[in-house]
Automatic annotation (TrEMBL):
<dbReference type="Pfam" id="PF03492">
    <property type="entry name" value="Methyltransf_7"/>
</dbReference>
<protein>
    <submittedName>
        <fullName>Uncharacterized protein</fullName>
    </submittedName>
</protein>
<keyword id="KW-0460">Magnesium</keyword>
<keyword id="KW-0479">Metal-binding</keyword>
<dbReference type="GO" id="GO:0046872">
    <property type="term" value="F:metal ion binding"/>
</dbReference>
<dbReference type="InterPro" id="IPR029063">
    <property type="entry name" value="SAM-dependent_MTases_sf"/>
</dbReference>
<dbReference type="InterPro" id="IPR005299">
    <property type="entry name" value="MeTrfase_7"/>
</dbReference>
<dbReference type="GO" id="GO:0008168">
    <property type="term" value="F:methyltransferase activity"/>
</dbReference>
<dbReference type="InterPro" id="IPR042086">
    <property type="entry name" value="MeTrfase_capping"/>
</dbReference>
Amino acid sequence: MEAQVLHMNAGEGEASYANNSQVQKLVIAKAKPIVAESIVNLCSTTLPQCLRVADLGCSSGPNSLIVISDIIDTVEKTCRRLNRSAPEFQIFLNDLPGNDFNTIFKFLPAFYERLKKEKGEEFGPCFVFGLPGSFYERLFPSDTMDFIHSSYSLHWLSQVPQGLEDNKGNVYVSKTSPSSVYKAYLKQFQRDFSKFLSTRSKEVRTGGHMVITIAGRRSKEPYSEDSIPWELLALSLNDLVSQGVIEEKKLDSFNMNIYHPCTEEVEAIIKAEGSFNLDKLDTYEVVWEAIHNGENKELMLKESRSSKIIAMAIRAVTEPLLVHHFGEAINIDKLFQRYEEHASEFLSKEKGCNFNIVISMKKK
Ligand SMILES: C[S@@+](CC[C@H](N)C(=O)[O-])C[C@H]1O[C@@H](n2cnc3c(N)ncnc32)[C@H](O)[C@@H]1O
């Protein structure tokens, strides 16, 4: 079910993912050195004539092509340094079938133009393909892929875990959730991430690389502050229940198909599955305020309220799921007004912060 419903808000409007993915953009910028290191290692071995690269869970908006540009730049620079000619590129942008691929395709002519201008007519060529499908299933022919990248997508589960009947009033693992809820989420993540690794291991050639960034959990405890964006969503939904806008039983049957693993959980699954060597695992935080306090100039926004930024970011990734579950009656504007108010109250006491896990792996 989730695979048919899940997609980020389409287009380029005010509530679109394209316009509300600055946190994810900062996450990509922070992971860039690890992606670059992996590409440099890959290029230092024998390169095929055509390098096959995929970005899994590319969504739609500027971030989709930023990752690809960075990868191409690093390959080009490394080949130049090694005095080799750069390969051709076959690039796959993957997401679920409901993703707004058309918005990415519209940016492609300008992307190709820029490549030609910056790198010359002889460079590449580079061919970009849209690839609809779930990354929990096979996406590519056997032994064909050289480099797989995925940012902020693998914490999305293939489905809402079974056994969450006792998570009433919550939408994810919260402070008040019984331990069965955490166990159900962990079990689903173990199943999904393991399937992801074994599926990719058939497609990535021996010696091929994979770099993945996941929104994770900073402690081994089932509950950490990484649940806060989902607690703010639960608070806002509960407000709508109190106001009679949505039914309580509808809220009780709604849970996010997301899981934020801790590093130990991720490492254990990679080890148990066994197809990839874990070259590097790094963690870093992205403070919501970093977006407009100048940590990354490119990302400074006109919008000065972190509460608004986080409310719009959560809306962009959850609106289709919420509307599907609660129906149009949910009044999404009202819901995210409440979200902004709860976020503002939270941020007046504590700082909002995403904890990220980057994993760099090599196919055995
Ligand atoms: C938060 S967005 C991240 C997008 C982009 N990588 C970025 O960093 O801005 C997560 C994306 O993962 C996609 N996704 C979730 N589950 C997926 C699956 N099973 N297969 C392919 N894509 C999936 C979602 O549709 C969504 O576009």
